[in-house]
Amino acid sequence: MTMTLDRRRFLSLTAAASTLPFAGRMARAATPFAFQASWINDAEFTGYFVAADKGYYTDEGLDLAYASGGPDVIPESTLIAGKADMTLTTPDTTIKAITEQGAPFKIIGAQYQKNPIGIVSLAKNPINSPKELIGKTLAVPPVNVISVEAMLKMNGIDRDKVNIVPYAYDPTPLIKGEIDASLDFTTNVPFTIEQAGEKATSFLLYDFGFTIFNDTVVVTEETLKAKRKEIVAFLKASAKGWTENFKDTTVYPPQFADSWFKGTGRSIENEVYFNTAQKPLMEAPGGIFSMSEEAIEANIKALAAVGIAAKREHFDTTVMEEVG
C-alpha cells in the first residue's frame, strides 16, 4: 500500500523490474495474464484473493499470475518491462510518466473512488477539518507535502499557519503527543493507534478538495489492444471477488491467515479493520473499478492543483463499459 512513490527513477528501473518474481500460477486456464499489485499482501487486495480462491479467474478463462508489491516495487515499471499486463498505482505517478516521459499508459479503472490518505489525530485532541490544523503540528511524508499544501490552499488556509514536519510512517510521535496529527492511511493507522491504547479520528483529503483516485488500474496502450478480452475478463472476475468480499468484511481475512496474509507480520484483526474501513471508499454507483465523468473531472482538477497536467484522454472508460 503506497501513498505515492517518487518516480524520478521510473524508466531507469525498468531493467531491474524484469527480475521481479511473480507468484506461482494460481489456476491453469487458456490464457496467461500477469497482475502486479501495488503493495504487500494485505486487506487492500482481499477481493483479488477471494476471486482467485473461488476460481473466478479460471471461470473467465484466465491463467493468472499474481505479484505482490512492496516499497521497492514501482508498478508502472513492470508494465514497461513486459513482466505484467496490468498494475495498480496512483493517478499522479501514472500521468506524470505519460506527460513527462511519454509512457504509453492508460488508466482504465479505479479501485478506490476516494483516496484513503487523510489527516489522523487522537480523539482526545481531535482535528476534524483543515481549518483546525491552523497552529498545529502536522507530520507529513515528504513526498506528500505538495498534496497537503494543495488541500490547504483549496480550503483557504495559509501554508505558514500549519507547522508541517517530516513523517516516517510511524504513529508513535502522535501517540506520545509530540505532534498533533499525521498524514496516513485512514483505513489502517487508526487500528494501530487503538492497539497502543488511544482512540483515533480522521478525515480524508478527498473530502476537502483533493479529489483523486487510488489504486488506479493501469495498462499500456499496446496491451489494451492486444489483450482487451483478457483485461475485461480480469476486471469482471475481480469485481465479482470484491462484491463477494463486501457481503461481510469479517469473513475472508481470517481465511487467508495461513495463505495470502501469512508472514506479513500483521494481525488478522488489523486486516478485518482495514477491509471494513475500505468498503465505503471503493463503492460507487457504477460498480467496483468504475470511473464516472464527474470523478474523472475531479481528479483532473485536483492533479492540476499539484502541477500535474492530467487530461481526459489519459482515462479510458470504454473497458469498464464492456465489463458492465
UniProtKB/TrEMBL annotation:
<dbReference type="InterPro" id="IPR027939">
    <property type="entry name" value="NMT1/THI5"/>
</dbReference>
<keyword id="KW-0732">Signal</keyword>
<dbReference type="GO" id="GO:0009228">
    <property type="term" value="P:thiamine biosynthetic process"/>
</dbReference>
<feature type="domain" description="SsuA/THI5-like">
    <location>
        <begin position="44"/>
        <end position="245"/>
    </location>
</feature>
<comment type="function">
    <text>Responsible for the formation of the pyrimidine heterocycle in the thiamine biosynthesis pathway. Catalyzes the formation of hydroxymethylpyrimidine phosphate (HMP-P) from histidine and pyridoxal phosphate (PLP). The protein uses PLP and the active site histidine to form HMP-P, generating an inactive enzyme. The enzyme can only undergo a single turnover, which suggests it is a suicide enzyme.</text>
</comment>
<dbReference type="InterPro" id="IPR015168">
    <property type="entry name" value="SsuA/THI5"/>
</dbReference>
<keyword id="KW-0784">Thiamine biosynthesis</keyword>
<dbReference type="Pfam" id="PF09084">
    <property type="entry name" value="NMT1"/>
</dbReference>
<dbReference type="GO" id="GO:0046872">
    <property type="term" value="F:metal ion binding"/>
</dbReference>
<keyword id="KW-0663">Pyridoxal phosphate</keyword>
<keyword id="KW-0479">Metal-binding</keyword>
<keyword id="KW-0808">Transferase</keyword>
<feature type="signal peptide">
    <location>
        <begin position="1"/>
        <end position="29"/>
    </location>
</feature>
<comment type="similarity">
    <text>Belongs to the NMT1/THI5 family.</text>
</comment>
<comment type="subunit">
    <text>Homodimer.</text>
</comment>
<comment type="pathway">
    <text>Cofactor biosynthesis; thiamine diphosphate biosynthesis.</text>
</comment>
<dbReference type="GO" id="GO:0016740">
    <property type="term" value="F:transferase activity"/>
</dbReference>
<keyword id="KW-0408">Iron</keyword>
<dbReference type="InterPro" id="IPR006311">
    <property type="entry name" value="TAT_signal"/>
</dbReference>
<protein>
    <recommendedName>
        <fullName>Thiamine pyrimidine synthase</fullName>
    </recommendedName>
</protein>
